[in-house]
Amino acid sequence: MSGTLVLVRHGQSDWNLKNLFTGWRDPDLTELGVEEAKTGGKALAETGIKFDIAFTSALTRAQRTCQFVLDAVGQSDLETIRNQALNERDYGDLSGLNKDDARAKWGEEQVHIWRRSYDIAPPGGESLRDTGARVWPYYMTDILPRVLSGQKVLVAAHGNSLRALVMVLDRLSREEILKLNLATGVPMVYTLNADSSVATKTVLGDMSGAH
Which residues form the domain of 32? Predict the structure, then answer.
């Protein structure tokens, strides 16, 4: 009994636009971000999918993206579970800083290491591995069992929390996941086999603009 798992990264936020490290801070979507979320929802609506449940993070930009997607597929009132396990990676002391200012303070090489290494965290924050360490157990206990029971599940979250999930689903190495960028508002539709491996994956949009 094959279920469906749909992953959507939230649309552009105010701080994405201003080139700030966001992490667990809670800026809202920009007008473009709203349009990206609606476009992703429209792409899903055209497939005819109907969800059984939705999951999102504790942050506004993901919650609003989730709602725009559900509105687009005609399921505005669908049960939606919010949990900080799906939050963006915590950038710690970098949160709220302009990325250019961070480079001026710590040096370009150090900031690049924090942004793009797998297991080196910025001061007071999380690495991608740390992010996975909270995302993966939540996926295993709360999300995956629903998919394996045949449900259609929407997860609207963030670049790094979703990269942690894609790493497991697509069986990517540490090196491969570091090169992966997810476009905002573009749904990734997975169907899973009974052993939780991926049967099919379809991307409903253009990933070339991912960042």
Answer: 4-90+128-203
